[in-house]
Amino acid sequence: MLHAKKKIGAWLVLSTLGLSVLTGCGTQTTVAEAAKVNVLTVKKSSLPVGDTFLGTVAPFVQTSIAPAISGILQDVKARVGDKVVQGQLLATLNLDQLEAQKNQAAAGIQSAQAAKDSAGQSINIRQQNALAALQTGEAGLSSAQTAAQNAQVTAQKALDSANANYSNTQAAYASAIANAQKAIATAQAQVTKAQSGTTNGVSQAQSAVSAAQSQLQAAQSKTAASLAVSQQNVDKAQDAMTTAQTKLTRAQQMAHSTTDPDLLDAQAAYSGAAIGYQNALGALQYAQADKSVDVAQAAVNSAQSALQTAQSGNDVTVAQAALDQAKQALQAANDSKVVQVAQAAVAQAQNALTAAASQGEAAVNTAQAQLGQAQTAYQTSLTDPSLVVSDAQIQAAQASVQVVQANIDKGQITAPIGGYVVAVNAQVGQAVGPQGGFIVISSTDPLMATVDVPESSIALIQKGMPMDVYVSSTKDRVEGTVNAIHQSLDAANTAADNANTNYPVDITLNKADATILSGMRVEAYAVDHSREAILIPASSVVDQQGDKADVFVVTNGVAKRVAVKLVGLTNTQSLDGADNIVLSGLNEGDKVVVQGQNHLNDGDKVNLGS
Questions:
Q1: Does the pLDDT value for residue 495 go beyond 60?
Q2: What is the pLDDT, as a whole number, of residue 2?
Q3: Of 327, 301, 294, 295, nearest to 191 (Cα)?
């Protein structure tokens, strides 16, 4: 890192030594007060290399500020010499017209909002109506789904009943066949017995008659019971269907629509009652078609004929006739249609189930379509175009406010950079605009020094090399770096005058003090950071003889004369005199008197000045 150095002799400011005259006891005595001096705390600094070059401080950036819009200056806060920071308000245009435009645009926002609120009230009513219709549609769909499900459940129960009846019929049919086959076997046995002899023919025939009569009585009892139960079921089913018809008629008269829940329930109840009635009729028909009594009667007749034959002595003939009749009974049982009737009832119940499912699906589809229409109407009410138009109007008015506000903001002229105001070319009441700047600001960070380097030394200057800059008016020594070497501006003139050509060299000041201003005179010189020594101003030395001299060092408020060995820097002459290199006699941190030392004696008490 570069170390900042101060030009030692730059700190010399003449001070006066005062004497106070004290009086007392009638006599006047002069007593010397403690001398007031200025000191420099010495430290090692990089040694200068080469010649010193003169120049001035220049801003790294200098900008001319103009407003973004045209207008009349209402207030100018900047004055030449003012120090400003980035973003600081410098001037303001008259914004009365823009403020009026802003107020007008704001009123447009309020008007558009009021229109939106008014439209919103009407839309809210439509939304409520659409929501009610939507809820009605949802209820209708739920009712249709429930009715369809109930109808399918009823039809499924009827189908299950028909299947159970079919199973029972098959069992009864199998039993009738088995009985007929047993009768054939019995008759066959009778034939066999008759053929082997007629001893027991009559008794056997009588037994057969008794057995056949028992079977006839059992068949008659079973058939009568089945017919009574079936007829009772038919009567009950008919009564239920009549009741359901009455309720359906009442529901149709009171219903407001085809999706009315009461109507749908009545329709489902009537469909179930009708299916039940059809099932009861099927069961009755099946009972009426039962041929078991005829079969048993035929067996009785056959047995009685066999008895008559046996009694007449025609046992074999009678037994053979009984056998034939038993076979006819078997054939009659085989020809019975009870199984087909039961199977037809199952098919009828299956068709009823399919019809219930189809009707329920149609009712559900109708309810879903109505619900879809209600949903569409409700969504349409939520996205009413009038609201969109109102929102667009509000947004347009808001955009107008933003545009006007942007122009109002442009009427506030602020500093784009920090620095010093070097020119103000317009005052309050004058018209200004973007076409020309009227406030000029020079930046202070970073600052730049431009020095003239003669042709004989320009080859030693390179971009990026370190150079120290001394500002004579502030007595500051600042480290810097060469950032540009320009072409000579006076090459043509100097060629004619046979004079040396000077080349402008720009040096960026690394840590410029705030007191350093653009235009101040400076001198710059290269430094060697690898060589350091204590430097003191030539003006601080007293009684110098060759390389030996004395200086005054202040310790605890007392001036002490110290002998030092020096080496002068005659090639680094600056505006405030030459510096001297201290070879011995001083240490870093010593306070060397640089003002008032010519009036001191060794051991004098001193006061340190500012």
A1: no
A2: 31
A3: 327
SS3 for 588? coil
82-91 pLDDT, tens digit each: 888 888 898 8
Pairwise CA distance, residues 409 & 403, whole Å:
10
* Helix, coil or strand: residue 473: coil
The first and second tokens of residue 534, run together, are 């204590």
- pLDDT given at position 561: 95
Half-sphere exposure of 218 (CA within 13 A, CB side): 12
For residue 603, which of 562, 566, 564, 563 has the smallest C-alpha distance? 562
Question: Considering the domain 8-59+448-459+468-488+517-608 in this protein, what is its CATH number?
Answer: 2.40.420.20
Answer positive or negative: Cα dihedral of 205, 209, 214, 218.
positive
Q: Where are the beta strands (DSSP E) in 151-265?
A: none
Instruction: Return the number of other C-beta atoms located less than 10 Å from residue 330's C-beta.
Output: 19
DSSP one-letter code for 40: E
Paired tokens of 200: 């027991």
Q: Residue 336: name the closest of 288, 274, 269, 400 by CA.
A: 288
Nearest partner of 338 among 89, 172, 97, judged by Cα: 172
- 467 burial (CB, 10 Å; 0-12 / 13-18 / 19+) is buried
The predicted structure's pLDDT at residue 603 = 92
Place of tokens 């001198």: 523
Rounded CA-CA distance 569/157 in Å is 126
Q: Per residue in 230-284, pLDDT tens?
A: 899 989 998 999 998 998 898 888 888 888 888 888 889 889 989 988 998 888 8
8 Å CB contact between 47 and 533: yes
State yes or no: pLDDT of 580 exceeds 50: yes
Location of structure tokens 């008014």: 118
Rounded to whole angstroms, how far apart are CA atoms 603 and 592? 14
The pLDDT value given to residue 389:
67
Structural contact between residues 429 and 73, judged by C-beta atoms closer than 8 angstroms: yes
Query: Which of 247, 268, 273 is closest to 151 using CA atoms?
Result: 268
Mean pLDDT along residues 72-94: 86
Tell me the pLDDT band of 490, cut-offs 50, 70 and 90: low
pTM, two decimal places: 0.39
Closest CA to 4 of 466, 461, 321, 425: 466
- Residue recorded with tokens 């309050």: 428
Specify whether the CB–CB gap between 526 and 46 falls below 8 A: no
CA distance 443 to 416: 10
Three-state secondary-structure class, residue 568: strand
Structure tokens at 138: 């949802």
Nearest Cα neighbor of 86 from 333, 327, 419, 523 is: 419
Ranges of each domain in the chain: 8-59+448-459+468-488+517-608, 168-368
**How far is 49 from 468, CA to CA, in rounded Å?**
10
Length of the chain: 610
Name the residue type at position 173.
Answer: Y
Buried b (16+ CB within 10 A) or exposed e, 89-115: ebbbbebeebeebbeebbebbeebeee
- pLDDT of 433 reads 82
pLDDT over 90, % of the chain = 10
> Which of helix, strand or coil describes residue 505?
strand
Q: C-alpha angle with apex 90: 87 to 91, nearest 5 degrees?
A: 130
